[in-house]
């Protein structure tokens, strides 16, 4: 009887896991055609902000791919995922390097994430750092790559990325930092916005950061060689 109970429990857990993956895949299919109105990360951040201010709102305005500066597209790829147009969602060399760094530090501090992996995390998952969450991120990443073009992946990513406290998407980010729409960002502005992505809230509060200046210069140096989808 105990073995039968364990078998049923395992079968139910397996069925629940399949149902969850189907739910993820259904949303990926939907978003391949329909623009997301929000993401799991955006909702988490809004809840955090409302703990201090119940009336807090996010700044977020979706704009189509054509209305985002080509300089920002190049800068973000240069900064976050230079092989974006070449790989199938996962850069295994980067993951191996991140895994080795994590072993040295004794904790999960680096993930080797590509743009598609970051999008998978932002759309669906928490900010928790664990190998289990990383595994789910990989599954969703392959779902996204299976049904979306690189152009669509980059369009969604640029529209939901965080660019400051409560600031999401290229349009809101460009207006917040430079007072211009995303379409009018110049090369230097784009390089600086791309450089902010690893720590957007920190750099929003510390715009004079020397680290941000160094990273911006690095992005500006390499973005010209990038050809976005």
Order of helices and strands: HHEHHHHHEHHHH
> What's the gyration radius in Å?
19 Å
**How many strands appear in the DSSP assignment?**
2
Number of helices: 11
Classify the secondary structure makeup into a structural class. Answer: mainly alpha
* Biggest sheet architecture: 2 strands, parallel
Reconstruct the topology from this structure:
Elements: H1 2-31, H2 40-52, E1 59-60, H3 70-80, H4 92-105, H5 115-124, H6 131-147, H7 150-160, E2 167-168, H8 170-178, H9 187-196, H10 200-205, H11 210-222
Report on this structure.
It is a single chain. The protein is an all-alpha fold and 229 residues long. The chain has helices at 2-31, 40-52, 70-80, 92-105, 115-124, 131-147, 150-160, 170-178, 187-196, 200-205, 210-222; strands at residues 59-60, 167-168. It has a two-stranded parallel sheet. Helix 1 (2-31) crosses helix 6, helix 3 (70-80) packs across helix 11 (210-222) and helix 5 (115-124) crosses helix 7 (150-160). The chain is globular and about 65 Å long.
Keywords:
mainly alpha, 2 strands, globular
Quick structural overview:
Helix content is 63%, strand content 2%.
């Amino acid at each position: 009887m105990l073995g039968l109970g364990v078998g049923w429990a395992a079968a139910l857990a397996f069925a629940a896991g399949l149902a969850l993956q189907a739910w993820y895949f259904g949303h990926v299919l939907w978003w391949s055609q329909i623009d997301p109105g929000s993401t799991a990360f955006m909702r988490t951040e809004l809840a955090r902000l409302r703990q201090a201010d119940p009336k807090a709102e996010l700044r977020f305005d979706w704009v189509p791919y054509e209305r985002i500066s080509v300089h920002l597209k190049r800068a973000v790829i240069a900064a976050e995922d230079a092989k974006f147009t070449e790989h199938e969602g996962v850069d295994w060399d980067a993951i191996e390097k991140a895994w080795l760094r994590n072993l040295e530090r004794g904790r999960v501090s680096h993930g080797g994430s590509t743009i598609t992996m970051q999008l998978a995390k932002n759309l669906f998952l928490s900010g928790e750092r664990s190998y289990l969450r990383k595994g789910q991120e990989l599954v969703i990443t392959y779902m996204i790559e299976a049904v979306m073009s690189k152009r669509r992946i980059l369009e969604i990513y640029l529209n939901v990325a965080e660019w400051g406290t409560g600031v999401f998407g290229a349009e809101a980010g460009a207006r917040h930092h430079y007072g211009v729409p995303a379409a009018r960002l110049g090369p230097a502005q784009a390089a600086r916005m791309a450089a902010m992505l690893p720590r957007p809230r920190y750099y929003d509060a510390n715009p004079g950061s020397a680290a941000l200046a160094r990273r911006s210069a690095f992005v500006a140096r390499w973005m010209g060689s990038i050809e976005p989808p």
